[in-house]
């Protein structure tokens, strides 16, 4: 019985940890949305104008590209001997966001208004087939 109780406690703790991680991710996404909105508005762009959506796409794509570059640098510095190029690994390719599938939508959460932007992967994958 103690094993079952221990297993349940570990499972509950793990689920709580995942939940907190998800909450942190969501809070970070809202914070980034506000920062991106302020950056694009400072450039004179206003939602829902296409130039605003293009501005948000560029900011998000720049972050994705920088994250990819950081991963490449970590792989090169931690795993590779000097002077030897890193091996090709297909899962580490950078793919720019596709403007055709990128959109912004207004959202309200905790009585605050946000403009959330993302690439619709489902629509993009449906177009591939």
Salient structural properties:
single chain; 129 residues; alpha+beta; two-stranded antiparallel ribbon; 3 helices; 2 strands; 12% strand; globular
Task: Explain this structure.
This protein is α+β, with helices and mostly antiparallel strands. It has one domain. Helix content is 61%, strand content 12%. It contains 3 helices and 2 strands. The protein has helices at 2-42, 50-79, 121-128, and strands spanning 102-109, 112-119. Strands 1-2 form a two-stranded antiparallel ribbon. Strand 1 (102-109) and strand 2 form a beta hairpin. Helix 1 crosses helix 2 (50-79). Residues 6-11 and 13-20 have low confidence and may be disordered.
**Shape summary:** globular
Portion in strands: 5-15%
Number of strands: 2
Low-confidence stretches: 6-11, 13-20
Summarize the structure.
Helix content is 61%, strand content 12%. The chain has 129 residues and is an alpha+beta fold.
């Amino acid at each position: 019985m103690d094993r079952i109780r221990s297993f349940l406690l570990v499972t509950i703790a793990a689920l709580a940890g995942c939940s907190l991680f998800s909450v942190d991710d969501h809070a970070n996404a809202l914070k980034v949305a506000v920062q991106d909105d302020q950056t694009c508005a400072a450039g004179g762009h206003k939602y829902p104008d296409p130039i605003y959506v293009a501005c948000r796409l560029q900011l998000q794509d720049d972050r994705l590209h920088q994250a990819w570059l950081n991963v490449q640098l970590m792989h090169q510095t931690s795993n590779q001997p000097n002077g030897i190029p890193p091996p090709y690994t297909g899962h580490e390719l950078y793919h720019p966001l596709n403007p055709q599938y990128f959109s912004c939508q207004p959202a309200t959460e905790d009585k605050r208004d946000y403009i959330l932007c993302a690439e619709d992967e489902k629509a993009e994958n449906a177009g591939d087939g």
